[in-house]
Amino acid sequence: METRVAVIGIIVENYDSTQKLNNILHQYGQYIVGRMGIPYRQKNISIISIAVDAPQDVISALSGKIGKLPGVSAKTAYSGVTSL
Q1: Residue 78 C-beta-side C-alpha neighbours within 13 Å
Q2: Which of 8, 43, 55, 80 is the most buried (most CB within 10 A)?
Q3: For residue 39, which phi and psi values (nearest 5 degrees)?
Q4: Does domain 3-83 match CATH 3.30.1330.60?
Q5: How do residues 21-43 score in pLDDT, each as one tens digit?
């Protein structure tokens, strides 16, 4: 199956959604290449970036589930590189 490399940028403004976010990321763990989280305490938010290598539909589903969480936003940037 063809996969793409992408980065999902996540902003968490509602810490009540953190556990649900971590559960979603755990479900998609096999596709996650790396994760970086930065707590921005002065603004009371967290900034998270997730690098993934997955089929297009999996990336879209992951980003969509994250974006539906209250107080959480997600945007995805895709690499032009695909692999089988």
Answers
A1: 13
A2: 8
A3: -80, 125
A4: no
A5: 999 999 999 999 999 999 999 99
